């Protein structure tokens, strides 16, 4: 059986929306987009590179997959993250996406996330990682399908926005398996589901 790992950039008050740029995700009138890049440093880059160095496939919700397709799928910048993302098998979960042809090595999982991802997890293959895709993560978390979390906890509060653990979910105990603090005050915490 495959395992599923999640990497999420999160504020102290639990917001995961609009990390990268002002126009990334303005749903619900969110006006704080672009809060994350100023906290990137060498330590964070090294930790993220270690995560991407592990073999595995990627798993996306539709919105994040479309955003990553635009940002990474057409990039030719020589960035090792670009090469990794383009080469990886990418599963995109969607009820509405007509196909996954816009980004190489993408496979559409049509239907309800819990059922399609649960079936994928049961199949033999490499482990799965999710970067972003908060709605997908919430659904899979509530169903008990997430095995590990890497939370990049940023030293700011936003006061509004989509939160990672919002909505109904069962009590879930996690074990801290490691942590690193960056020079900009971001705590990178690694958790495993008990």
Structural class: alpha/beta
Distance between the termini: 17 Å
Strand order of the largest sheet: 4-3-2-5-1-6-8-7
Strand content: 25-35%
Named at the architecture level, the CATH assignment is 3-Layer(aba) Sandwich
User: CATH fold name, please?
Assistant: Dihydrofolate Reductase, subunit A
Number of domains: 1
Please name the fourth-level CATH homologous superfamily. Dihydrofolate Reductase, subunit A
As a whole number of angstroms, the C-alpha radius of gyration is: 16 Å
Chain-averaged pLDDT = 93
Give the count of helical stretches: 5
pLDDT < 50 runs, ≥5 residues = none
Task: Give the helix proportion (percent range).
Answer: 25-40%
Listing every helix as H and every strand as E from the N terminus to the C terminus, the arrangement reads EHEHHEEHEHEEE
């Amino acid at each position: 059986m495959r395992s599923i790992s999640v990497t999420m950039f999160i504020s102290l008050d639990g917001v995961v929306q609009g990390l990268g740029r002002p126009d990334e995700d303005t749903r619900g009138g969110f006006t704080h987009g672009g809060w994350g890049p100023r906290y990137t440093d060498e330590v964070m880059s090294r930790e993220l590179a270690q995560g991407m160095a592990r073999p595995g496939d990627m798993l996306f919700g539709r919105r994040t997959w479309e955003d990553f397709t635009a940002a990474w799928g057409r990039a030719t910048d020589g960035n090792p993250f670009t090469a990794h993302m383009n080469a990886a098998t990418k599963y995109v979960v969607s009820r509405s996406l007509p196909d996954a042809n816009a980004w190489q090595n993408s496979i559409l999982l049509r239907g309800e996330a819990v059922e399609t991802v649960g079936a994928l997890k049961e199949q033999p293959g490499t482990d799965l990682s999710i970067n972003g895709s908060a709605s997908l993560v919430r659904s899979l978390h509530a169903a008990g399908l997430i095995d590990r979390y890497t939370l990049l906890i940023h030293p700011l509060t936003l006061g509004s926005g989509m939160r990672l653990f919002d909505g109904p979910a069962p009590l879930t105990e996690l074990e801290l398996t490691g942590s690193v603090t960056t020079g900009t005050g971001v705590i990178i915490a690694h958790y495993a589901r008990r």
